Amino acid sequence: MRLRTTTVSVSVSVVAGSSALLLLTGCGAADMTKQASPFANARGAKTVTLSVQSWVGAQANESVAQYLLEHELGYRVDTVQVDEVPAWDALSQGRVDAILEDWGHPDQEKRYVEDKKTIVGGGDLGVTGHIGWYVPTYFAKQHPDVTDWKNLDKYADQLRTAESGGKGQLLDGSPSYVTNDKALVDNLKLNYQVVFSGSEAAQITQIKQFAKEKKPFLTYWYSPQWLFKKVPMTEVKLPAYKDGCDTDPKKVACAYPHTPLQKYLNADFAKTGGKAAAFLKNFKWTTEDQNEVSLMIANDKLSPQEAAKKWVESHESTWRQWLR
Question: What is the DSSP string of 201-247?
Fold first, then answer.
């Protein structure tokens, strides 16, 4: 999920007595890429600072990495919750050491990886991300042709809500997400209105309510995501994705790509971070692994630390390889 937020107030979750900090960063901020981190490796301490995005899959990555860094490698882990584009700025500045789930930001890659060389790739996460439009599987079984975008207008009346202004509703999450949905609706000439729920949590609540009542809905959604286990959904086929078809945001008329999710490290940390940097480079798991932890956090209401501990206890053969 790519976010367009350009200025963000960052909250810090602190482990082992580290003090809280508010960090402001933004795309238009002054170039501070040479500024030393106030956290990472302070006075030689074994400290790692991880960026955590707002969706639960990213929280699953971080919680397991944090648990192993602390319990197996003896590090203190600080976490910073920051939206995606500002996270790149913070990583370049050394305010965070690693981003564990990036959905593709070519502008930031060019600026920081290729040009400034303040960020380096940390390898594949092992999970492929995909954004798409989905309907509940119970509705797709009743109306199989709804899974082709060309037939969506046929069902617009059934998908209309009080918020969609007489058109069918396409439910989106946070208005800060960079989606192509408004352009897609316009360019495909669909009788639909994009309606923002406000957040991932609010969108999940709405989807679960629709499912409880067996109502039809059309929603922007993404995988990997634990909710598919609770509310089976079927993807609507949009015009096929081709390289470059989404270059101009106003002219997009194609599906979203499948994106192998990547990790990135601060360049200095990658060189001097020792076992922690090596571990984060080796951290690689499957969609099923991530969803297992996400489900425990979001559905079973375990704390991220409890979910990580439970996963670690039952998957030693997987994480032992990350410590090599």
Answer: HHHHHHHHHHHHTT---EEEEEES-THHHHS-EEEEBPSPP-TTTTS
